[in-house]
């Protein structure tokens, strides 16, 4: 019997660690000028949203986290993840609104706070979401990603 699309695949029953960064989309907000609405057509810098590297086959062909040794579940527009900053323990729940980051360009890249580190850019948050867990000036932070 086929799995219902709302059932999480086994590989996302537990959290994954990686780097979180931020990006601009949609209408102007904070440090962002107006730009495109992202792959889902709903992305706005002032909303609690994120880009995910495996939203579709076309997205996967661009981002390729598997080239960094990371297997990520297929999740589509609107799916909610909880992103927890490993530096502070604060978290934010966001919805997928775009494809990205291009993980394979950053294989092995690492960000740390003290002795706490994580490698490979796995998720991009809008500035509104990123500012909930870290200062925008930090640019990259180690995080844990789980289903919301």
TrEMBL record:
Entry-linked InterPro entries: RlpA-like_sf
Domain of life: Bacteria
Protein name: Rare lipoprotein A (RlpA)-like double-psi beta-barrel
Organism annotation: Nonomuraea solani
Phylogenetic lineage: Bacteria, Bacillati, Actinomycetota, Actinomycetes, Streptosporangiales
């Amino acid at each position: 019997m086929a799995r219902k699309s709302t059932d999480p695949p086994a590989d996302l029953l537990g959290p994954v660690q990686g780097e979180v960064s931020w990006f601009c989309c949609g209408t102007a907000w904070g440090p962002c000028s107006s730009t495109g609405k992202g792959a889902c057509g709903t992305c706005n810098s002032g909303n609690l949203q994120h880009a995910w590297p495996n939203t579709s086959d076309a997205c996967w062909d661009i981002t390729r986290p598997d080239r960094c040794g990371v297997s990520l579940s297929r999740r589509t527009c609107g799916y909610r993840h909880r992103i927890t900053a490993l530096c502070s323990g604060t978290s934010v729940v966001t919805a997928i609104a775009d494809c990205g980051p291009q993980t394979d360009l950053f294989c092995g890249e690492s960000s740390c706070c003290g002795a706490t580190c994580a490698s490979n850019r796995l998720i991009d948050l809008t500035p509104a979401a990123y500012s909930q867990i870290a200062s925008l000036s930090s640019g990259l932070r180690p995080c844990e990603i789980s289903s919301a």
